[in-house]
Amino acid sequence: MFFDHFNYWIVVILMMIGLYTVMSRSNLVKKMIGLSLFQISVFLLYISMGKIEGGTAPIVSNAPDVIYSNPLPHVLILTAIVVGVATTALGLALIVRIKEAFGSVDEEEILSNEDNL
Amino acid sequence: MEEFTDIFLMLLLVAGSLAVLYVRNLFVATMLLSAVSFLMALLFVTLDAVDVAFTEAAVGAGISTVLYLGTLALVGSSERPAAKLSVIPLLLALSVGGALIYATFDMPVIGAADTPVQLSNLTKRFVEISPIEIGIPNMVTSVLASYRGFDTFGETTVVFTAAIGVLLILSQKHVRRPEEDEVEQSGLKPAAKDHGQVGSPHDLIPHVVSKVLIPFILLFAFYVQFHGDFGPGGGFQAGVIMAAGFILYSLIFGLHITKKLLPLRVVELFLAFGVLLYGGVGVASMIKGGNFLDYNVLSADPVAGQHLGILLVELGVGITVTAAMLAIFYGFAGRAQGRGKDVN
User: Predicted ipTM?
Assistant: First the structure.
């Protein structure tokens, strides 16, 4: 009974750790790491929904009476992971450029530098 | 037993994420994030999502760590200590989290077979009819490449666009600010200097081991690519593994040798070729009288047509993902080399 929704709780906890990292840390790389954590938690949410108790991976086998877990969430998340790393790379590239343009990757430092200019 | 493993892994995940949040050294945070990704991949295996686990292990724990490290080499890995306790974000996160946990009680029980997800008509079609209709055992591949082929085409284009974006952003000329030189001269940024020597000539063991390993990594990538119809695997995973082979080579033997082997121009050509191959299969099926990406018309026998279509489309995905990952890596590593003083 207690563990009926356990995966979802972990999803929420991870998501909030990610969200808190994004909001509270002023370092831009740390913010990206927070976003990655957030993203990973969403993956777990989808995969948990596709799971069937006593099921197996959705690859056809000849064994009798096989229950397959739902392949659709797997497809959605598989592509999301690869798209996620591509967008992360784009964000990191922007951070590299910000460092070169402003001399810092710290949000507050960048803002105070801007005020001084 | 399985439940115990799940719960143990998930608690480790939470511990890992808290550590990522807590540590102030970004290098440590990146390595911990990589560990969290790997734990997540293990969890996906126990949740029956083998294809996803495969991708997460290769992408989350592999490539994205390399990208973070490449960024840290350019921007430095120390985080400024927090000046003040951030109360408002904490309260916000706690209240949103509380609301979401309250909402989870409306979710169906995990693992139940009578949830809306499992009872949907789509699920029935994918699980019961796809092995006959598409004719390949791995349902994930048939949904990915055939039923949701249009969606996957979009995702391949996103990867393509992101790679172009990274190349555009990072290939601009670097204008040095005067204070930047001062900082570098005072030796405050050892990370950037270390990165100048990509591929140290002194590391004998990595040299020997990687020379043996790299052919097998590339061979494994081909296996994953072409065996994806029958087991876990497919274009996305194969592309990442293939790129990882080249990135390993570059890290150990130096970027300039890798660029001689596979110039950026060639990588860019492959990047476009993969997307064009995918789109070309769609156009070919339109010319043959079907809908866009309707593989049934590609051959006299619909199932053979599906096989051919999926093979070509996955090949397109594999080529684009390999080229995109390499292009992104070239972008970051090239930027670091341009700055390092002793480029080998």
Answer: 0.93
